[in-house]
Amino acid sequence: MNVLQSSPFSNIPPVVKNLLIINIIFFIATAIFESKGISLVTMLGVYYFDSPNFKVWQMITYMFMHGGFTHILFNMFALFTFGSSLESIMGSKRFLNFYLITGLGALGLQFLVQAIELYSITGYITNHGSFIIDAASRRISYDELLYTQKQASTILQTYVGPMVGASGAIFGLLIAFGMLFPNAELYIMFIPVPVKAKYIIPVYVVLELFLGVAQFAGDSIAHFAHLGGALFGFILVKIWHLNRPRNFYE
Fold this sequence. Notes:
9 helices, single chain, two-stranded antiparallel sheet, globular, mainly alpha, Rhomboid-like fold
């Protein structure tokens, strides 16, 4: 008699499963192409909307690109952990919409913050000829009488620094999970006891806000993109009137 053994992935909801697969494929492809001197990050990571490297499709593809093994590991672990419960509640179609909308919302807030920074330096949210960006060599030419070196560095990073990662959408999932499962106990790194979601998630959001405003030197993380995903996740839970079923295990 043949005994059919179920796959370890058989209990993962379909959208979460496919998102995991797509992200892993993109990650492997990025490494393969990089070894051949081809940068998928440049093509599929998202640039500021006024950058010469910006392409419309990047607004979606950036969500499936990651900057390193640790980056994708934590994001995919969070997608599996929080996304599985949320897809079971929302249904696959709505969950996919939620994921993509929060990812786009993350990008929207990031663009807004970049535009404000650019306006504070130049008086415009686009390049009006006061500097020249060489996207290929990642350099900027500017009049030193107009901008300080720090301001020029900010402009350069805005125009030639791509954003990658599913973190914005993941923050949307995190917020939704906290709102629907406030008493779920989570294990946090370096904390030896479980902490309820309703306590730890707000702290995480405040920390992201602090890091985004502080702008510590060497910090390349798009904290406002994380906050954008969290904000849109909160809004969607409210306007879609999402609630956890009473008989759903927490």
